[in-house]
Amino acid sequence: MQNTREALADSAAENIITSTHLAVNAVNAFTEQVFHTRGGRIGSGMGSVIEALWGFYLNVRLNSEKEIPYELGWIYGHEYNDFACIFRNEDWNPDTKEGELFRIEVKSMVASADESKAHFDRLQHEFAENELLAVFLWDWKLMNDQPKTVYPAVLDYFVGHALPIAQLRDVLHVERGGTFVKKDHCPDGCPIQPCKHVGEPLNTSGVRERRSGPQSTKGPGVSYAANFGGMLRMLGSRGRQGKEYLKHEYAFDPTKARFIDFMARNFSRVARAIK
Ligand SMILES: [Zn+2]
Questions:
Q1: How far is the CA of 171 from the centre of ligand 1 (A)?
Q2: Is the pTM of this model over 0.90?
Q3: How far is the CA of 209 from the centre of ligand 1 (A)?
Q4: pLDDT value at position 55?
């Protein structure tokens, strides 16, 4: 039974990954038809709209495949725009994950912004093995027939398993001098181990990267550093070792390679790092 479920989760993930270009084409056709404006705001929440539209258009596609037993559900009460791949004809309980095959964390980035506000900062142990990550790069684009009017368009995207990307992020974090709180070594000196801080990232100066990190590692003047998992920043490497690691993973791990390719296509900084 377990094997059947795993095989189904694998084929569902593959289907979502390979069908995304059709969903993205549909999103762009819709935004080009409807979301017209002069100007075009950044930080407007449009990224969240695009993330949701992807889910809905993908669902139209999945629902047209009558023979598959799954669809997407939009998880309520979450900090992020998260979808779950769920069984079509079964009860779904997001609190217990009953009726779910796996989850999808969705992020968006604006191409013309220096660093995306999107943070991929969930810890490795917070991910299930088969969870997916979807990242959409978008920007305001001039309309062909109305040169002063823009619409938001998805320019590029990545959809793939989240865990390999988290591993990539974490190795490079350490390579740049960061650390993770280890069991029995919590800076808060928590009496019961493992404490809830184990695995929390600290930066080179020992400042916690997330609000949930140890209380005693608050930074001077900031509650937490919030650099961890910055989509572009997380691929940065200082020394030769980091670069070697990036190149090695690029050559041998197809999911990491697709993510690095996606970032390298759009950010010259990343392209230089794998040369
Ligand atoms: Zn602790």
A1: 22
A2: yes
A3: 14
A4: 96
